[in-house]
Amino acid sequence: MRDEIGPPVVGMVGGGQLARMTAQAAISLGVEFRVLADTLEDSAAQVCTGTTIGDYRSAGDLLKFAAGCDVVTFDHEHVPGEHLAALERVAAVRPGGAALRFAQDKLAMRDRLSALGVLAELGVRCPRYRPVSSPAGSSGGSSPQASTADVLAHGWPVVLKATSGGYDGRGVWICDSEEAVAEVISHGIGLLAEEYIPFDRELAVLVARSPKGQGASYPVVQTVQRDGICREVIAPAPGLDPDVALRAQRLGLALAAELGVTGLLAIELFSVGDELVINELAMRPHNCGHWTIDGAVTSQFEQHLRAVLDLPLGSTTSSARAAVMVNVLGGDDPDLYSRFVHVMAADPGVAVHMYGKQVRPGRKVGHVTVTGADVEQLRDRAWRAANYLSLGTEEPDEDLGADGGR
């Protein structure tokens, strides 16, 4: 850790768009911000002068980077667990390795959450699950060997998830036959089998927690996924029962405390009637919170910096009645900038955020946000802008999922 007097230095491991947007928030706070990126072409490396090129899987690169920082945080969960303890000896690591484990290892997360009484108190549960050991069976912690019939007692389909390394739909398979299960298992990776949840819609709650234990929750949002990728976020979730929203926020704050999270915690939820089912956790800025840049008093990126620096947390109040964020996915034409004129002239109220990433079909390359009062109008405006940036047309494209999940 540094011993110089001056503004604190925050280092973020990972140079993606989350680090890029955190760098923007650091500027207004007067915080020195550094990034450990893979290459100079990474999204954050393009805009952050304090960029170090290195490999997050290398203990040497991580320790060298951390030595110049007061606080180390992350824009992804993939730093090897054995390196986190070494990092904690040279800088404050937030979230720490003990907490981050539950975002890195889905089996550890499911086991830990299933043991928490607070879930039952709040009317929340996890899907039924088993770690998979073979196409014909699985084992569950201290439970005896389980048959496929036991794992699939609820019937087909079954969801298989890689226990580590998955994101944006990668590492998740929905299987409707034993042959499909066997094919996934043949990949030779650690897997978790979960019951398929026929949800009404998907929700997410984003909370922040500081080392002193201060917590703050943003409004519960609705997310729309397609092919495992978040395409749209509506804040707050339309028509959500206030009691359900309050339970989700209490859940977020309770889990952040139980797991020892410092920084942001995002919880992806399935909504089934009045019941909430936990899908995934992330301990970093998250796609479900991008709307906060334009639609909340304190953006999630500033809030994450406040939390990891143990500063008082900012207001999570919305600055408009509603906000809609739509991700911009790459299409066949990489020249997105030439389409700015049409989007900005057609709707000056659209906020455009681009990540400086190489355009590839289906890749997240930016997002747009619109704020106002009428949710359906906001959705229409946001989708029109996102579609035009992606495709050069306001009409939806089936391959990109530009129907907004409606």
Number of helices: 13
Number of domains: 3
Low-confidence segments, ≥5 residues, pLDDT <50?
Answer: 135-147, 398-406
What's the CATH topology label of the largest domain?
D-amino Acid Aminotransferase, Chain A, domain 1
The shape, in one word, is globular
| CATH class category name of the largest domain | Alpha Beta
The major beta sheet can be summarized as: 10 strands, mixed
Q: How large is the share of residues in beta strands?
A: 25-35%
Q: Which range best describes the helical content: under 10%, 10-25%, 25-40%, 40-55%, 55-70% or over 70%? A: 25-40%
Q: What's the rounded overall pLDDT mean?
A: 90
Radius of gyration, taken over Cα atoms and rounded to an integer in Å: 21 Å
Number of DSSP E strands = 21
By secondary-structure content and strand pairing, the structural class works out as alpha+beta
CATH architecture annotation of the largest domain: 2-Layer Sandwich
CATH superfamily of the largest domain: ATP-grasp fold, B domain
Cα end-to-end separation: 50 Å
